[in-house]
Amino acid sequence: MRIPAADLRAQHDALRDDLRAAFDRVVDASSFIHGPEVEAFECEYAALCEVPHTVAVSNGTEALAMALRALEVGAGDLVAVPAFTFVATAEAVCHVGARPLFVDIDPMTFTIDPEALRRALRQHTVRAVIPVHLYGQPAAMDDIAAVARDGGAEVVEDAAQAHGARYRGRRVGGLGRLACFSFYPSKNLGGLGDGGAVTTHDAELAARLRLLRDHGQTAKYTHGLIGYNARLDGLQAAFLRVKLPHLDGWNARRQALAAAYRRGLAGLPGIGLSEPAADREHVHHLFVIRCARRDALQAHLHANGIASGVHYPLPLHLQPAFAPLHHQAGDFPVAEAAAREVLALPLYPELTDDAVARVCGAIRAWTQESVA
Ligand SMILES: Cc1ncc(COP(=O)(O)O)c(C=O)c1O
Q1: Which of 58, 59, 61 to mutate to test the pocket of ligand 1 (most atoms within 8 A of CB)?
Q2: How far is CA 141 from the centre of its chain?
Q3: Is 184 close to ligand 1, i.e. is its CB under 6 Å away?
Q4: Ligand 1 neighbour 154 (Cβ under 6 A)
Q5: pLDDT digits (tens, 9 = 90+) for 321-343
Q6: For 262-319, how does the pLDDT look when each residue is reduced to its tens digit (9 = 90+)?
Q7: What is the domain class of 8-245 according to CATH?
Q8: Is 152 exposed, middle or buried (0-12, 13-18, 19+ CB in 10 A)?
Q9: Domain 247-371: which topology?
Q10: What's the whole-model pTM score?
Q11: How far away, in angstroms, is 57 Cα from ligand 1 center?
Q12: Cα–Cα distance measured from residue 132 to residue 180, given in angstroms and rounded to the nearest whole number
């Protein structure tokens, strides 16, 4: 039996009746754009994140761009982002006309390195910093906040991979001025299509975001500012409401599976494991190991019917799209090493303990063959 990297079918099979009922509710009400499902989801998601405001939007990339627009970040501004993340973090910076300032990451957590950020902010004035809670582990938010405060920069969380995670007891989503989420189907909380949200403690920013996402409409056909069409569909909100009550349970299962991987892989030569930082609750969107011979290991797993993923094979500063920023190999060595070595093993709440044991066995066999 093949073990996939993720299995959305298993999740949806278990929820099919509830998803059908949600679909019927939306069709019966014909409230496809905004409406009661979106409003209810916003309240429920705000409660999960322990913040007063959630503004649902069309996807995570747009959530990031909207957050920057709400803060009036734009042309001529610099925004600090980690060099190792999904492209959308930096793409959103470009969408508002600003320029990403790449910063290296911490080798243990894969999140932006506060000391590297401090060095970068000594040389540059940035309007905002976007720490990414990569793979489901919150970034070092207190240290980042202190550096940002000293540099006069706002902090916008990219929490697209970390729904429900905690930093020093507090949920992500309320750790910066604004926080951005993606509900892409494979995320820890995913819709049946695209979706996203911005969360915040700040009522004024939330109000501005509500205008921005809907053509700047202050009243029907009255437009207070130039906005966008960046709304969440009623259907997606209804589906997300079905899934939201399961999120903490799914995350707990992800954590248990990650612990099983750590036990199963402990001490294997050439396999790097990083413990989650003690002050953070990692929700394991992905379970990632490091291996210098990563591509060979991935090929071995593939040959044994085990899928795995590389998130991400090229750091942002070396992406062709960012060539105009004139970076070169060696600029962000920790990010570059991560891109060469990371491998995400199968992980999703419905994954069985036996499957984890099989993956660990296949990796153990490979390490023994490689040493022999
Ligand atoms: C770290 C990160 N930021 C932003 C995004 C963008 O989200 P979306 O795909 O919903 O636009 C994603 C996910 O795809 C992501 O993983």
Answers
A1: 61
A2: 15
A3: yes
A4: no
A5: 999 999 999 999 999 999 999 99
A6: 999 999 999 999 899 999 999 999 999 999 999 999 999 999 999 999 999 999 999 9
A7: alpha beta
A8: exposed
A9: Aspartate Aminotransferase, domain 1 (3.90.1150)
A10: 0.98
A11: 13
A12: 10
